[in-house]
């Protein structure tokens, strides 16, 4: 664990050395995002709702795995959670390889894809909590915001890099290369993780997960309402572009990720300077503007701008409210708090696929961005109320 005198750059290097495993995971996720919806829709012949279900299955699996991931990390250690997550990622890659090799058997291929998404979702649950807890243990709780921010940076950086790479790999080598690439990256991650020192396990009474969930509920609700925009963009941008006759949808995902990472690098200090609630309120409003622009985009250039604004807006919502949530939980249950908080993000992404697929089937692909914008505006309203309520409670306690 770092001391208060440790230099910021040294702290950052320690964090990056741990969250690099999250980067490998999201690089693999990025491979699949621009390719799988089209594969399910065009090659296998299923509808938009089924394509959304395939993508959303990963996030529902991640959601279901969060309590286990938090408990495992608190009791058995963060390193073990990361190793198990990398094994699950490799297994998911193997199923992707099989599914894309058996596309003539459409139902078998679809079933294998769904299983692969469940395994990759399980990997995401373990790696997300494991790397965050491992990083906090290495650099200290005073750097919680920095760890959460960097974990998000590598998540969306991985997607930004992985999306165009996935398109290039599948077009030049074939769909089989995606599953093979995931297997290779998971293997590299396992080799790197095995050599790292484990994080100490914090002793103390463990809170029941339901109690932890109750404490983080209001913060997670705001995150969920804002995160549906990302789920909608990630799942349907390829089909949305196709419905408009536009090319190169992967660049929307890349620009989203670049804007997301850039905003976190440039403005993450605003959380400590202006407060988590103020930052989250401003970011949710900006995200809403980006989604509305995607809804009404007359050309790919405007869609790219909308994606950039959406990414920049969403960038600081998670760490801004996450710091507020995690600090209200004892250190012995910190991983459970991270897992409970992340549940809301997973829930949003899991809902986004089938919900927005149904909306697209009835009203067209553009309509999903209008609905996502309205939900982000609702998150803005909830966050604003929560900020005022918390401020009022502090004033009452200070007065007493």
Automatic annotation (TrEMBL):
Membrane topology: Multi-pass membrane protein
Subcellular location: Cell inner membrane; Cell membrane
Main location: membrane
TM region positions: 12-33, 39-60, 81-99, 148-169, 175-195, 216-242, 248-267, 274-295, 301-326, 338-359, 365-386
Entry-linked InterPro entries: MFS, MFS_dom, MFS_trans_sf, MFS_Transporters, MFS_YhhS-like
The UniProt record lists the keyword Signal: no
A cellular-component GO term for this protein: plasma membrane
Residue stretches making up the Major facilitator superfamily (MFS) profile domain: 14-391
SUPFAM superfamilies: MFS general substrate transporter (SSF103473)
GO MF annotations in UniProt: transmembrane transporter activity
Family recorded in the similarity comment: Belongs to the major facilitator superfamily. YhhS family.
Name of the featured protein: Uncharacterized MFS-type transporter SAMN05216272_109123
């Amino acid at each position: 664990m770092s001391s208060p005198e440790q230099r910021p750059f040294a702290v950052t290097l320690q964090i990056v050395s741990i969250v690099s495993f999250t980067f490998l995971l999201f690089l693999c996720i990025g491979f699949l995002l621009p390719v799988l919806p089209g594969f399910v829709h065009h090659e296998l012949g299923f509808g938009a709702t089924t394509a959304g279900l395939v993508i959303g299955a990963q996030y529902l699996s991640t959601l279901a795995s969060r309590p286990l991931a938090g408990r495992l990390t608190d009791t058995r250690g963060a390193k073990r959670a990361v190793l198990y997550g990398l094994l699950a990622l490799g297994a998911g890659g193997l199923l992707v390889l099989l599914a894309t090799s058996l596309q003539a058997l459409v139902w078998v291929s679809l079933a294998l894809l769904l299983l692969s998404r469940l395994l990759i979702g399980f990997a995401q649950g373990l790696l997300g909590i494991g790397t965050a807890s491992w990083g906090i243990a290495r650099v200290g709780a005073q750097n919680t915001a920095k760890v959460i921010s960097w974990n998000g940076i590598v998540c969306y950086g991985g997607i930004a890099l992985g999306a165009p790479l996935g398109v290039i790999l599948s077009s030049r080598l074939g769909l089989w290369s995606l599953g093979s690439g995931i297997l290779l990256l998971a293997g590299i991650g396992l080799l790197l993780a095995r050599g790292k020192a484990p994080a100490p396990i914090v002793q103390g009474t463990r809170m029941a997960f339901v109690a932890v969930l109750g404490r983080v509920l209001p913060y997670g609700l705001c995150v969920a309402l804002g995160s549906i925009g990302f789920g909608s963009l990630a799942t349907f941008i390829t089909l949305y572009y196709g419905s408009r006759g536009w090319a190169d949808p992967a660049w929307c995902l890349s620009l989203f990720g670049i804007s997301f990472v850039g905003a976190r690098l440039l403005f993450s200090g605003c959380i400590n300077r202006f407060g988590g609630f103020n930052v989250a309120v401003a970011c949710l409003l900006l995200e809403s503007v980006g989604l509305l622009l995607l809804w009404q985009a007359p050309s790919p250039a405007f869609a790219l701008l909308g994606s950039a604004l959406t990414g920049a807006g969403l960038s600081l919502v998670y760490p801004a409210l996450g710091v507020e949530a995690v600090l209200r939980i004892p250190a012995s249950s910190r991983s459970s708090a991270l897992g409970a908080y992340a549940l809301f993000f997973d829930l949003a992404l899991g809902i986004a696929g089938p919900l927005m697929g149904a909306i697209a089937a009835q009203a067209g692909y553009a309509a999903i961005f209008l609905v996502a914008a309205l939900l982000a505006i609702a998150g803005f309203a909830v966050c604003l109320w929560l900020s005022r309520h918390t401020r009022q409670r502090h004033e009452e306690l200070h007065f007493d």
